[in-house]
Structure formats: structure tokens, C-alpha cells
Amino acid sequence: MRPLDGIRVLEMGQYIAAPYCAMMLADLGAEVIKIERPDGGDPRRIYDPLEQTETGSMSGGFLSYNRNKKSVTLDLSAESDRARYLALAATADVVVENLRPGAVDRMGVGYDALKEINPRLIYCAISGYGRLSTHRGEFAERPAFDTAIQAIGGLMAVTGEPGGPPLPTVTGFADVFTAVHATVSVLAALEGRHQSGTGTFVDQSMYDSVASLLERELMLWDFTGEHRVRGVDRYSPLGALEAEDGYVALILPTHEMWRRLCVAIERPDLLDHPLLDSVVHRAENFASVIRPEAERWTRSRTRREIVEHFAAHGLPAGETQTIDELYQCQHLDARRMFLEIDDPHAGRRRMIRTPFLTDIYEEPRTDSAPQLGEHNDELLTEVEPTTA
Q: What is the pLDDT of residue 272?
């Protein structure tokens, strides 16, 4: 048993945001039907890395966001396929889509059309800058991709080295972060439906999502009028210290944390250093004073030794792991955070899962991503018109 058993989701998604949201719902037990164009489907189907066989193919990027789904192909420009889609929507609990604003309405399959045939439908529209006419901003018609949203959302303004150019964070971050918010919104709307009996339109904007992540920087601007310098948080000294085998990262937001570091590295004299007498001064001088002084102690020790020693002194720190180390992490294995997926074209693959863990519900299924139109026969027979 899984918490969303019995919930049917239609996904008209492509690339990352809507597909990841729908995959989270699939991992929670929902039946997710991915609606795709017959002429190629989701563009990520052909992204590298791509494994091809005589009978089909599987893209790593497509598999990452489309596990545990079914695929149905419909040409929504054709009246017969629009009728099939509307019939499927009448059976659905949730629709998730991230097509360009206005696209579904022009085809006659937007929320206004669907709620007439299914008043209990939860319709989640993911877009760059928002869809609701009552909350319309000047950027509403802009197309959006992850890097553009990381930039306009302020994230790139605080990412990178001091004095250097703005840098994006992890590729796809704005998409995935928005998808997580969209999933929470859908779950809240499903719970609300239990009380109201009706569905709702969920307007999930990527710009809104990333701007909300910058709450600390916005608060500091409101309180101080100061711009954060890239790579420096003036109110929380932080950074990485070189170890024998890599780096360890930590943050020192309070005087007590600073005291614990000085004790841990056997340098109580630093507590009286004139350039390190406040949180602000320690932040400003982390790179020039704290790091070189601390690294006299850390460079001769391994990351594990440093982290465990710091933990014994009540100082949270973390090894800076490489991707191959993350992939092989025994702690993540113990948490069962990887799924073993056996795909007929890509072979056996080890994929990170969505992090929903409870003590009573089953873990996500381990089905691969579907081939284009793989479930047409299974699902479209439900909605084919009957003949007398």
C-alpha cells in the first residue's frame, strides 16, 4: 500500500518541472499517465546520455524524471484525440502540465474546459512566471528555462566567487525545486477536496519558487539595505577547509560555534583576534584569516577525522563529497535512497529516488520510464466511443 493508491494523474509535461512533480506523485502510489505527442513525445526522450537498441531507446535524462509512469500518445490538434483526452480527464484526480501559457486553452483542453466535465479535478499548471489572471505580472508571457529562472530569481546573484561572474547552481535546480512545491500544493489541494468536495487550479510559478528560496537574502536587504556579496554571507561565516583528502565545509553563525571551532583546532588564541571579534568580522575575514589558520590543523587530517572530531565538539560539519562518492555512499544505501531499475534498452540502472520515507507505506515501485505510447492499448480502450 502507498498513500496515493487509487489517485489518477494525467501529466502533459516535458523537460523537468512537470515530469518531476508527476514522478513524485507516482512514487507515492498514484497512477500517472503521461500524455505525449505521437511525433516524438517529450523532448528529453532523445537527450544524451542515450542508450539505443533495435527495439527502442532510453535516455538517462528521461529516465530520471519519468519512472513509474504510463505513456499515451494523443494529437490534441485532432478532434478525435481531444475527445479521448477529455474522456481521460473526466476520470482523473489531478492534471499536471508545464506547456507554454495559453497552449492548452487554445486547444480547448485547459482548466476551464476540464472543470466543466470534472469539478473535482486538481489542475496544476507549472509555468515560468504564473498563470492566474488575478495574479498577473509583467513577465507572464515569457518562456522560461531553468537557468533563466535561476538568474531572474536572484539565485545567481549570490552564487560564485567574490568579484567573479554570476554562476548557476546545479542544472535543473529551479525546475526540481518548483516541482517539489507543486507536489506539496497538489497534496494540499487533494486534502482540501476532502473538505470542500471541489477541485482547484494550482498556479505554480518557477520564479515564485526560486524567489521564495532567497528569503534570507530578502530579509537581510529589508533589515540592512545591503547586497550580499557572492560567496560571502556577512551574518554567517561559512566556507570549506582543506583536508588531507579533500575539503570539509562548515558554518559559524554564532559566537558559541566560533568558540567550539577554536577549541577543536586547539587555537583558543583566535578568540582574541582583533579581526574576528564579531560574526560580521568573522564572515568578512573567513577566507583571509580563519581559513588559513584552521587549515594548519585540518590539512594533516582526513575529512572523516575532521568531521567526527568537530562533531565531538558540538560543531556540525560535512565532508565535501564528489559525485562518485555520493553514488557509492553507504549511508544512502542504508536509507534505501537508490532504486535498481531494469530497463530493456538501457539495462540495469541505479537511480536516486524521491525522499519520501515512512514506517508503514511501501517504497516506490521500480518500474522504468515508459516507451512512447506504450500504454495506448491499455488506456485508450477505456475512452473509445462505443458503436451501436
A: 97
- Cβ atoms of 232 and 283 within 8 Å: the answer is yes
Residue of 377, 345, 368 lying closest to 26 (CA atoms)? 368
Q: Look up residue 357 and give its three cell numbers.
A: 520515507
Strand bridging mode 246-251 / 238-243: antiparallel
Quick check: helix, strand or coil at residue 362? Answer: coil
Task: Say if residue 326's pLDDT is above 90.
Answer: yes
Q: Residue 280 has what pLDDT? A: 93
β-strand pairing of 122-127 with 238-243:
unpaired
| Whole-angstrom distance, CA of residue 325 vs CA of residue 342 | 23
Residues marked as catalytic: 175
Beta-strand ranges (E) seen in 69-160 are: 69-73, 94-97, 122-127
Compute the distance between CA of residue 122 and CA of residue 94 in angstroms, rounded to an integer: 5
**Alpha-carbon gap, residue 72 to 178, rounded angstroms:** 25
Given a contact cutoff of 8 angstroms between Cβ atoms, the answer to whether 379 and 72 are in contact is yes
Local structure of 58: helix, strand or coil: strand
Residue length of the chain: 388
Dihedral sign from CA coordinates of 106, 107, 113, 118: negative
Instruction: Give the Cα separation of 53 and 197 in Å (integer).
Output: 48
CB 378 within 8 A of CB 70: yes
pLDDT class of 387 with cuts at 50, 70, 90: very low
Residue 297 burial (CB count, 10 A): 16
Alpha-carbon distance of 276 to 270, in angstroms, equals 7
3-class SS of residue 55: coil
Assess whether pLDDT exceeds 80 at residue 385. no
Structural domains of the chain in order of their starting residue, each with its CATH number: 8-213+336-380 (3.40.50.10540), 238-325 (3.30.1540.10)
**CA–CA gap between residue 319 and residue 249 (Å, rounded):** 7
- Which range, 101-105, 194-198, 384-388, is most confident? 194-198
> Which of 150, 157, 138 is closest to 228 using CA atoms?
157
DSSP-assigned letter for residue 229: P
Mean pLDDT over 31-47 rounds to 97
d(CA 58, CA 45): 7
| Number of C-beta neighbours around residue 316 at 10 A | 12
